[in-house]
Specification:
With 206 residues, the chain is an alpha/beta fold. The protein has seven helices and nine strands, in the order αββαβββαβαβαββαα. Strands 6-3-7-9-8 form a five-stranded mixed sheet, sandwiched between helices. Strands 1-2 form a two-stranded antiparallel ribbon. The relative contact order is 0.13. About 15% of the residues have low confidence.
């Protein structure tokens, strides 16, 4: 059963990638083996705005991450900005305070797992939208990436060991650390102390 679920998951990802223009060829001897993958130039603005991978696109227009010449990047579950302007809520203010008070106001990129809608995302929605986040990260020059995604965020980056939570990880030429979500920090202030420790670790390698 586990093998079948993994196969269905892999098949779904192939369909997602094909929707972005990837072409696959198979050998005659083994039709299930991918022979080649041709990736066209991927323009993030166009792809996110034209995305129809899940129904969330019907809830709101996609919100693209804020990226610049930054050494640091934050990843949140949901966008806390719109049109490059930070929202006026507790989660957004917490993020700004972290940047200003812990990282001395260093220039920061802001990304999110989900690009559309206002409702908390489901696991499947994050997995589907992850292709957009990956592309944003690949174009970001940030050396250190702090993900406010909780322990479950580890698996989105292909990391299954929960012991890696709060530790510096090498991820595609970037140093990644996963800590608690902003939502959990607002609801449970007792988590702030542990998160503060994680942030100091990230600052130490910035």
């Amino acid at each position: 059963m586990h093998t079948r679920l993994e196969s269905l998951k892999n098949l779904r990802m192939l369909y997602v990638r094909r929707s972005f223009g990837e072409a696959y060829g198979v050998t005659k001897q083994e039709s299930k083996t991918i022979k080649s993958v041709h990736k066209p130039e991927y323009r993030p603005d166009f792809s996110i705005k034209e995305c129809n991978l899940c129904p969330r696109i019907k809830q709101s227009s996609p919100i693209i991450g804020i990226s610049g010449d930054s050494r640091l990047a934050f990843i949140t579950q949901m966008p806390v900005w719109n049109n490059g302007i930070m929202d006026q809520n507790r989660r957004a203010q917490m993020l700004i305070d972290i940047r200003d008070r812990i990282f001395d106001g260093v220039s920061t990129d802001f990304f999110s797992f989900i690009k559309c809608g206002q409702m908390p995302p489901q696991k499947e929605e994050i997995e589907t939208c992850f292709v957009h986040l990956e592309n944003e990260l690949s174009k970001s020059v940030a050396d250190v990436v702090i993900c406010f995604g909780g322990t479950e965020a580890l698996m989105y980056f292909g990391l299954k060991d929960s012991m890696l939570f709060g530790k510096i990880l090498d991820y595609k030429n970037k140093r990644l650390i996963v800590t608690h979500t902003l939502r959990d920090l607002v609801r449970n202030p007792s988590l702030k102390r542990e998160t503060y420790g994680h942030l100091l670790i990230a600052k130490g390698v910035l």
